[in-house]
Amino acid sequence: MTLYRPDGRYPLRQLMNPLAPCLTLAANWKLIADLTRRDVSGRYRGAIGGSLWAFLTPLLMLAIYSFVFGYIFQARWTSDQTRNVPFPIVLFVGLVFANFLSECLNRGPTLVTSNPNYVKKVVFPLEVLPWVASGAALFHAAIGTGALLLAMLVSGTPIAPTALLLPLVFALFLPMVVGLMWLLAAIGVYFRDMQQFIAVASTALVFLAPIFYPRAMLPEHNRWLLSLNPLTFVVESARDMLLWGQLPAWPSTLGYLACSMTVAWFGWAMFQLTRRGFADVL
Fold it and tell me: How confident is the model at residue 206 (pLDDT cuts 50, 70, 90)?
């Protein structure tokens, strides 16, 4: 489903549909799947390690972060907070989602500018580009999750039965991330400095989420500030489900879903409203 027309007119009823981002995915899923496979395979083409780097990279990053934050900085995770789960495992859960968000946000501003040939094709649905980029990031997240589960088995860390519901956390997170990518892709066409700004902002989001430190480390009256970070809910929910067999509270889950879908619709709408000038700028 694409709302773009050569005359720049948009059906208002479709533009205001809050489910339009999901309908875009449903209408173009074959194209999205093909482009995602091409994106993933092209990224490792020519590398000696090939796709093996998708598995090695999260493990290497885990080793580095565990050494720096666990040994050098001695991140203050008590045994009560981790419930005797090794610190690298607790850290790894957060890194899976942090890497997913960072990969998507860093690609967002250049999604349109790096594909000028698609912009000139009136029949090509440009709105699928964030779905393609997020699909490639999901592939890496899935590989990272597999490495995490392997690390848990090797370390003897029990895997909670609620871990089977972990894909639902990604399902909650994905609309928000794709919505941000639509917004960044549109802004990135007209404001090229956005790429540099997002590189800093994505790093800030990672360090301002309870990944390297527990929420309890902050003063109680300031802990609510972490909830403004889109990573906080998904990281804490994933840990609860994967490590400690707990499900997130339903009110919080429904509230996050509402925010995620709102961001997705807003980003998609802004992308559709601004795409008329893409070809002129490029």
Answer: very high
Cβ–Cβ under 8 Å, residues 264 and 175: yes
pLDDT per residue as tens digits for the range 231-266: 999 999 999 999 989 999 999 999 999 999 999 999
Q: What string of H, E and C letters represents the secondary structure of the chain? A: CCCCCCCCCCCHHHHCCCCHHHHHHHHCHHHHHHHHHHHHHHHCCCCCCHHHHHHHHHHHHHHHHHHHHHHHCCCCCCHHHHCCCCHHHHHHHHHHHHHHHHHHHHHHHHCCCCCHHHHCCCCCCHHHHHHHHHHHHHHHHHHHHHHHHHHHHHHCCCCCHHHHHHHHHHHHHHHHHHHHHHHHHHHHHHCCCHHHHHHHHHHHHHHCCCCCCCHHHCCHHHHHHHHHCHHHHHHHHHHHHHHCCCCCCHHHHHHHHHHHHHHHHHHHHHHHHHHHHHHHHC
